[in-house]
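protein under study:
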Amino acid sequence: MPRSRKSTKAPKPSKTPPAPPARAPFFNRELSWLAFNRRVLEQASNERNPLLERLKFLAIVSSNLDEFFEIRVAGLIQQVDSDVLEPSLDGLGAREQLRRIHLVVASQVEAQYRCWHRHLVPALRHEHLVFKTGTELTRTELAWVRAYFKDQIYPVLTPLAVDASHPFPQLGNKSLNIVVTVDNPATPETEGFLAVLPVPRILPRVVRLLPDARGPQRYIFLTEIIKLCADQLFAGYRITGAYAFRVTRNSDLYIDEEEAENLLKRIEDELRNLRRGAAVRLEIETGVDDHTFERLTDHLGLAREYVFRINGPLNLLRLFGVYDLIDRPDLKYPPLTAHPGPLALSGESLFPALAQREILLHHPYDSFDPVVAFVQHAARDPRVFAIKQTLYRTSGDSAIVHALIEAAQNGKQVTALVELKARFDEANNIQWARQLEEAGVHVVYGVVGLKIHCKLCLVVRHEDDGMRHYAHLGTGNYNPKTARIYTDFSLFTARDALTAEVAYLFNVLTGFVREPRFRHLLVAPHNLHEQIQAFILHEAEAARSGQPARIIAKMNSLVDRATIETLYVASCAGVQIDLIVRGVCCLVPGVPGLSENIRVRSIVGRFLEHARAFYFENHGGEPRVLLGSADWMPRNFFRRVEVVFPIEDPALRQRILEEVLQIQLQDTESARVLHPGGEYTPVERGPAQPVLASQDHFIADASRRLLRNDGEG
């Protein structure tokens, strides 16, 4: 049985480290996030990507902006409304941040639609995939559209007049609507009337024209059809204008957990209230007349800086549907055949195999199936007495949830910690929580004041020499669907030191422990932040004493002020620091005398870089390698339950360093380098340096291992 040799605890610095300059620089969090979204947009314009994949990247840009306005912009507007004067990390007030956000978003939206019109539409047409507007239809196509409208759309539309006796209708968050202006020919002297057509979500947003016709495949957006045929809804009136529009609302849940006796019921109530949240953005087609525009903005209470006039199809998120609608494998990424992982992770040999060695998987290049199989096998193994599991985000048909239900039905003690406040997945988690409870699973709804974001599964098994713990610790959610498109790590272990602390943590979360202490796991909000600072400063001390010192940290976001300042201190001491930060980075690299030893890169590619991995050169003569669920952000350090865990096996540590982190640091294709001015640029490649896209490298490596069938994870 493998056993831990060391604690992850770093020696405390022998003296107080020097502080960074009083006015150490930081990037603005919101503008840094928008820079990340720009990098996603670059992938839509990148002709090296398959054409239909470029459509998906364009759709992701829209989806990202939706969430940005629903949460981040909504929060800034609330700060302005409540006269909150506390500046952001970089010193900007809420009003100035909103001003800058508007300028950047306006430019980004313009670039997004320029990419659609100038690049993607012509490229699609070249592949005999034609997107038409209402004015481009032939007589035959127009006849087909009118018939389609009459049969499929007209029956489910409800025109809502807006006049003295009909108030402006309530508009759902991100719902598609058409505002129509009409005149009465009998009273030409009377000002025109206004009506709103809410478009039901059930209707497909992209329709194939004449699907049985030969020749190029032709498509039209639903909004174009409704605008063309709106006259059928207003018999006797003349349509003078029809424009699609969409309202984004504040979607941040507010739950006072101390006052919420029934958290499940309270969140359900809040989800219903979200549809009526304050408007934070209006998107409307260009060409709308001033009178109609003012009626909309006055009703919504929106200033002009929150309004975006769209030159093209509203809500390009709908391009996801186009990707699924078009059966052209030649215009998509080749399917990834993931390595199945060690053969020992199936059948009766699963637990004996884990008793002998730890197993590391790198998803999606290594299949997520072993994670599901781990829970399923535990549910059916008569020697397993208990299963404990955290669930933050799960898929709609979660095999893991079904396995937990099966385990409870088989008489095992099953505990599930379900995070009801997982943003935008609240309704899904409520549904599964109820099913789990009905099956006899002990469901715990988080911890007051904290989100449970850690990724843990513990199995308690009766063996010949007594009870033994087996654990899965991960960096990603227990969601087989997102595991195919997110990069993450999984560790299966029976190492006593780790599994005992996983068991202890579950008891902390479900019971009462005043001051929990951990020696091997780094657990937020208890010791994670303190230990990360200690590890960084330990590298600084090593550098000052003349030893080689290096940090490599891979994460989604870097925002925490104290951690950034500690990294500045380490840089000044001579520590070589490489940061792989996919999204927001508030640290300013390359500043002489402060961060000149820090390099930051972001990788955006086919898969969402989601894994968190940390390398520290000095740990008693060998490196320290950690994986976990936490980014370096205040919310992860102090407002969530997070777990970062050590990799003790030397071979696994070497694999993470040499086969993952160093490969990503050599990426010359998908990586972008952050400069002191805030811009991200492609990696400068030397004349003899080969082109390397790290994700393509990992895919090829998985294929090679499949061919060898070596069974190594």
